[in-house]
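Marked as duplicate of an earlier ticket. Keeping the data here for the record.
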Amino acid sequence: MMNPTSKPKQLENPIVSVIIVVVTMIVVMTVYELVKQYYFATISSWTSGLMTIIISTMFAAGLAGAILFRYHESLSPRLAQVKQTEFELQTLYRAIEQSPTSVVITDLNGLIEYVNPSFTLITGYTIAEAIGKNPNILNSSYHSVEFYEEMWSTLMAGQEWRGEQCNRKKNGELYWEFASLSAVKNEDGKIIHYLAVKEDITEQKRAREAIQAQKEHLNIVLESLTHPFYVINVHDYSVATANSAARRLGVSEEITCYAATHYRDTPCDSTEHPCPLKIVMQTRKPTVVEHIHFDEAGSPINIEIHGFPIFNEADEVVQMIEYSRDITKRKSMEREIEQHRNHLKQLVADRTHRLQAITTLSEQLNKILDINLLLHELVNQFEAYFGCYYAHIYLLDESSNELMMVEGYGEVGRILKTQNHRLGFGQGIVGRVAQNNKPFFTNNVSETPQFFRNTLLPDTQSELAVPLRLEEKLIGVLDIQSNKIDVFAPEDISMLQSIADQTAIAIANAQLLAERQTTIVKLKEVDRAKSQFITMMSHELRTPLQAINGFSELLLSGLSGELSTQAQSDVQLIYDNGQHLMNLINDIIDISQIESGQIQIDPTEVDAIEMITEVITATRPLSSGKPIELLTDLSDTLPPLQADHIRLKQILLNLVSNAIKFTDKGEIIIKAVVEDNYVRFSIIDSGVGIPPDKLALIFNKFQQADMSDSRQYGGTGLGLPICKELVEMHGGTIGVQSNLEAGSEFWFTMPMIDS
């Protein structure tokens, strides 16, 4: 079918058509004249004239029709072409009207003749406000005069100008746009208009400035993406569309196999370089793959490729949108982060190991109480845990104000101890630490003026020393040395200082324990001497006191003659006080012998009921003159006891005597019951009771419930402590329950004979 816009060759020149018509007319007239002459001679003249007119008219009409027909045929293609052009112009106009980019047309004087709606949306000026104005209404004073002069000189020369502009909206807000300015020429090549196509790139520019994108991407403004962007036809791997960024990489519509150009010499369907197109076709989903390319210099470039499937109406993948970006920096950063992470992991592992070492070392330090063993173990552990070349400990000798080396590692430490090695304040690194009471380390001792090299340690390269402190008081210095350079890190200071602080406490505890043990030995000697003195003095006092009591008893018996009433009263007073004094002396002797370990119990079989009967008989006279009743509450079958008869009776006598002394009226009950393998004795009274705050003190030596100067009841406060010691020597326990003004119950247990 002929294209309606094409021209028939025979009608390309209308003059030829006219000549053909005229020649045809001449031929027809000649034929007519011949016919008329030979065949129509008989026809009248008027008829002949009429025929001539008719034939001429027909000929003219035919000629006109032929000419019109011929011209109609020649104009139809042109009309179709005009309509096609009009359609294309309308389509272009609609595209411009709907375009998100700003389109501006100016006349030769630079005055605006046309703007599209995007111009009004971007700038804030209405179409009416823009028409007839100079585009300078958008100038932001950001660019120099030379910038605009160069732009207009380019346009006036008929060349295209492209670049970024900073303009100002109607509301004063600045914005950036990428402009493509060109001159519009007529068929003669004369400039008739200027066309400006502008894209708002404010956000893109801000993004580029924020992330400091590469400068070469700044000129990619015509495309919507700043990365290489292209569309691949899946049927033949050809490139359907490619933006300028992709073309700069060698990807363009002329490439029939995009992989050959895009991937250069690397395979595009391997494990290292998977083909995104094949993945998208198989999965029908977007995909992301990474490739390694090499630039012209042979340096590797990490590329991240994104592929997106395009489906047709039959839901078939017909194309793939692909764009890529250079992620070399990101990959490099990821590698650095991974290396840093691994380094941190190693540091954490090292620190964890050292912290575990500190914990283990601390546990060991807390268990060792001998200071010499403690210091020896410490320096050996440093070599084991920290791999140091040498370690030693200095303690401050306050008498000489010097640092005395008390322990060191290995043979060198032994020699220095033998030499009584000392350092003064400020001497060497150890002396500097002691002087400033602050840690110090160096990773190259040759660069440290304070370093003092010991001839026994010639290989020292690094050194770290920390003070041993108790509440900021310096007691010594802990020093470790290495035979390597750059061994210690700043964090090692805090770690070693932590060890030093615990070491200082351990040293102080060991010293305190040693002092305490020495003191205990001395106190034992003093206590032994005291006990011996008390025993000796007690015997010396008992001898004349026994004579006084004996003669008083003799006088009271009347064997030496009758005494007057007053004399008998006086002698009785002497006898009573003598007996009281004798009891006090006996208590002092007992407690002294118990403390010195001179009292030993001799357990035998004891009948509990007989023992209680003896105690009641012995103490009943003490209750004479008081409205007190002595009662018993005994189990029907009390088993025999395994006890020292004399000491058990002494315990019961002391407790019953105390009950009588602190009870003015009422009753005192002696109770005995079986509990497990013991017999529990209880002495329950209705006396004055004991204040709650005194209950915990009454079994202490020389302690009584009433310790005031005006106390009502006498005594040394040794009776209950003696009872407690004697009960515990038997393997029993003793206790008390009491309420003030409501009486007391003293109880103790004695073991039964094993069956």
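See parent ticket for discussion. Confidence is low (pLDDT under 50) at residues 1-12, 213-222, 258-266, 707-711.
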